[in-house]
Amino acid sequence: MPVFKIHHITKYSYNRPVIESVNQVRIYPVASPQQEILNHEITISDAPELFFFIDYWGNRCADFSIIQPHKELMIDSRLIVRTMGGGELPVSTTTLKDLQEPIEKDFKLLELSKPEEIKATDAIQEIINNVTAHDKTVMQLVEHCSAYIYQHFKYIKGITNIETTVDEILEHRSGVCQDFAHVLLQLLRTIGIPSRYVSGYICPNKNGMRGEGATHAWVEAYVPGYGWIGIDPTNNVWVTTHHVKLAVGRNFQDCSPVKGTFKGIARQTLSVYVSVGYEDGHVFEEINNVQMEVTEMAVTADLLAAEEAQQQ
Length: 312
Hints:
- This protein folds into two domains: 137 residues, Immunoglobulin-like (Sandwich); 158 residues, C8orf32 fold (Roll), CATH 3.10.620.
- Helix content is 21%, strand content 39%.
- It contains seven helices and 15 strands.
- The strands form three sheets. Strands 1, 2, 3, 4, 5, 13, 14 and 15 form an eight-stranded antiparallel sheet that branches. A five-stranded antiparallel sheet has the order 11-10-9-8-12, with helices on one face. It has a two-stranded parallel ribbon with strand order 6-7.
């Protein structure tokens, strides 16, 4: 049962003062049998009052505002978490037919089983034709879709961002964790398997994983008789004790650690720092910088770009 110390800083700097910054954060880790929150402290510039709530998908969130002029916004999260894992993977013989009844009874499962509207439906269907068979269980279908992405898509940082569409990812067959998660979601939902996007961290292990030491994204699929089970297409593994879960949703937008708006004319620079301390004392660090420009008076700037720099 490893213990990780995770330090996550999101910092916005502006070349001139901005006002009326209104924000929402989803950086509160899920407390579950798979992970125990030993300590969690969050510090925000100017110490605004936080208004906590549970969103539609069950994530713990907080809203805050900074009304006065400011040239910096920093959100500093320090987390100590113990991961226990989910034990042995279930031996499930459930098939797609077994999904029909639970989907009919649960609106959220129905919602999570509907694919996005994209242009490249032929490309998705071609992949599905390569991995599906009538005698495969739900878990086998999930495994084979994940394996296809791992084998046929290249892991390359910096060529995609939060606005990259599934069509674009399918076209150049490369990207990072959030891209692979969105492709896997499209595949599973087209097959008819309810699935949801997961944001979190992937912590270092002795074998090494793509994206370790940084924020990460993967997918949870619904398996009848068992519930939600996580799979990481970036590394082609079922979720392990090295995955720390923050939030779930239909896609990236539902899980962004930080998003919000502000007013003002300013050049905005985003810096994201993540360090993950392992129990042997080793520390993994990652720093990303993104520059975003605001050119109109009283403009509203979407801070969803936080995830562009964060998730690898």
